[in-house]
Amino acid sequence: MLKPVMEQRKPEGIRIADASFPSPFRSGLEYNPAARGSWNIVHTGMLIPESHQIYVCAQGCLRGVILTAAEMNAMERMSWVSLREEDMFNGEMEQRVIDGTAHIVERMPEKPRCVLVYLSCMHMFEGCDFKMIIGELSSMFPEVDFLDCYMIPTMRKSISPDALMKRQLYAPIRKLPTDSGLVSIIGCDRETDKSSELFEILGSAGKRVWEINSCATYDEYLAMGASSLAISYLPVALNSGKAIERRLGIPHLHIPLCYDYNEIEEHYRELCGALGIETPDFSENIERAERALTEARDTVGDIPIAVDFSAVPRPLGLALLLAEHGFNVRRVYADGFMNEESPAFERLREIAPDLELYPTLDVGMRFARDENCGEWLAVGQRSAYFLDTDKFVNIVEGGGMYGFGGIEKMCGLICDAVRNPKDTRATISLKGLGCESCL
Amino acid sequence: MNCTARIISIYAADVSGVCSALYEYGGMTVIHDASGCNSTYTTHDEPRWYDTESMVYISALTENDAVMGNDEKLITDLCDAAEKLHPRFIAVCGSPMPAMTGVDFEAIAYDTENRTGIPVIAVDTNGMHSYIKGAGAAFMKLAERFSKPHDRLRGTINLLGVTPLDFSLNGSVESMKKWLADCGFTVNACLGTDTSLDEAERLSQAEVSLVVSSCGMKTAEYLQRKYGIPYVVGAPVGERFSRILADSLRAAAESGENSLPCLSERACGGEVAVVGESIISASLACELSLETGRGVRVLESVGESEMSVLAEGDISVDDEDMLQHELKGAKVIIADPLFIPICSADAEFVRLPHEAFSGRCFSKEIPDLINTDVIRKLGLRGKI
Q1: What pLDDT, in 10s, does the model give residues A308-327?
Q2: Which of A5, A343, B86, B267 allows an S-S link to B295, with CB 3.0 to 4.6 Å?
Q3: Are the beta carbons of A154 and B34 separated by less than 8 Å?
């Protein structure tokens, strides 16, 4: 029997000095905070121009993806096949996918160039033959590229749905004769911000940049197959880059998004090496970033700052950058950290031992939203939600900002967050930041 | 029926129905699921999520635990969370993966209750059915577990089946309560919204149950079986039908007999079609029929609504092709806007968003149709 204890549902933060790495919190039941800006597999799949998505799964799973499409006014690009109990044991799962998908495609007034067929945990656990399904559909509709995609959240210890989606996102692309002037940046939900030195470096090497986000047609999308180099900088794109290199023979360079000057320079050196050009001097870029940080710090003053993992893949790295530049960084919201965050974690333990780490999924976080916690500046939607602050930087997955220019840009967003408070609820309730919304 | 749709939406699933039904009772509801069920529910199916605290969680099932049948992990996590949060009860329900691996939720509930001393209920779901089945089962479990025998209180009514999935947070619940008060009744319990566990406990003291959506039907039947409380089926949509419903409640209180006024008071067939959950749609059809003297057809589109309220010429159809076919003959279609793509351009389409179908897409335009002039509210004057 439970012992009666005082009502204390709100979780307390862990001082970083006392926290373990990379998993400071115990896993258990999970809560879902009401911040919706992060992209899901529907948003990402929609990046393929002239494509159509068909989900084959249970009603509960369908509901979320269908309404994602509905909210982004894209129902004409979304169809579904609902699985029932009998599908679990009648041994006809593959045929069900084929028949349902074919039925939908046949009824389309205009055939899409590409159909993304999303299979679910049920297919995975039944051991369905995905290759056969795609092969069969391709022979029925040779004019359509069928792509096996996955909504398999149960495989949470194997590969995240996001990373798997990023991998499949480029799967229809076929190898084309190499265009030495073409370089792709892959794996981003949004275009890379032009403030990044990436563009200067690539421009100086005479390269044009391909990103899926700017493709208006399927043919423009397929043109990626001629790339001479594929660059990724988000962790979720790592698998994708490896798959592209393996399948298409396009060299892949992963230069992770980070906030440490030395690491940024190192990544640029790697890039220049791959391009066969000399590494430029970044002193001016660093100076500009420093000036921007100083201006941002003066603007923010002593307002406490929280950073969360939904905003940037390396929240500790960003927290360290800000802390080292005199910002009053007080909290980081993240349920766990990438191993690459280890140096930032150790350094923060030294210079900001009282920095508090909070989870976002812990059951107690249901009660963590604090309307009376005073003025805060949040970097990310989740921290903005928990702190109920209208001063926040509204970005997800790094916001497309990379390098010293990215830091400069981030500082601008921080200043703007302080000067121009947002309607927090209205802003963070929108799904898929940057996507169209009917709300 | 091939269970495919090219362009229309899909109704909220059973797991969302469970969470929605149990939201306000101080319990902790846990979906045994990897991920997705909670974000779907809290984003699209639960308008109270941002403002009203409620303990709804997922178990964060992993592939290893699914394959190895590690139920102990779920039980331990339930106990840990309960120790931290002190819920008044715990409800567990399942998504497709536990259904595939054959998780025994009744056993998990039994074990968890023994360890925590907190009441634990298992609600039978697998993510492959509609919110009606889930909410209906959850309400039923709530009544079975928490209702206690009470003396009957004259003039009291149980409102059954009131979740935001059917009655958006647009004032319609308050309107139902006001209408009952204006008719001389007292609300004994309003299962689902603006409610508490005390109301569930005293369900047995009502004189009559009013089933306003299919989600409340099983509980009404249970309360009749267990406590002899008669029920009336219909939502107080429109002024004329609401008067009939009030009379039916009085008659049921006198006779102890059940009644379905949303079926018996309606002219059937016709070229006006109402698409949606059966009881609310039939009630609206009844009101329109009473107002115009013409037949109105109900196309039950969830597939799991209460079928006893469907009249001759009505149909239950949850398949896109069949629904499109059935809608061909309609001159006026009253339905959720996400049905528009399968409606003929020649038909007059009247928007009536339904949260259980379109989520929050059009929630701002959902009208409160309780005991009001629906012809005016829906802009139907001159159209039917």
Answers
A1: 999 999 999 999 999 999 99
A2: B267
A3: yes
